[in-house]
Each structure stands twice: as C-alpha cells, then as structure tokens.
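task queued by scheduler; priority normal; single chain, no ligands, no partner chains; default sampling; output format set to structure tokens
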Amino acid sequence: MKSEWKVTCDWLCGEKVYSVYRLLDTTEVDNSGNREYIRDFIPDEKIAQQLADSLNALSGQVCRLPIPKDSKKLHDQIDILRYAISKDTDIQRLAYHQRVLDELKAAAGQEGR
C-alpha cells in the first residue's frame, strides 16, 4: 500500500530544495528504491507542501477519463502526462495530472514506475 504524499528536503549547491514523494510500499523500509517522486526539485517549501496536500486531497478520487483499451495509446497517454507533470507550475492541475497518471499506470500494470 502506498503512503500519503510527503515533503522531503535536500541540500543542493548550498541551497535547500524540496521534493514531494510517497512510499510505494508502507510495509517496506523508507529508502530511495521505495519512493515515488512527483518532480525533481522545488525551491520553495510552501509550494512543495501545497502540492503534497493537493495530491493527498485527490487520493482515492476516481478520475472520469476513459482508459484506452489499446496498449500503445495507454502508454502514449502515460508519457504525455509524465511530460506535463515535469513542466506544469499550477499546483491543482499538477496534482490532478498525477492522479490520472496513477490510474493509467495501474491500468497498464506499471504501479510505481
């Protein structure tokens, strides 16, 4: 079972940077192989926490988008959403994209990838 989304802090070139992550399996040890991250680094802790809060608020909600039956279309949508998540700056839209991505990955059998 996956954990809720959390914020972690690291030092990069003498500056604090933040990431939003969750554990892929709460019964396992917290390490880098058991974490799923939303994006690379976020320079502002408040923004990172807002993103984690938005993701947790959407947790369990079912998105009403049709999941493609065709495997190639499904994987194309996953790639498109991953790209959108890497570029998006709107917290609510980013959280929604991640929720949709989770559903598509589950349909494709790619949990946590």
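post-processing summary
- Residues 63 and 100 are 6 Å apart (CA to CA).
- The longest helix spans residues 91-108.
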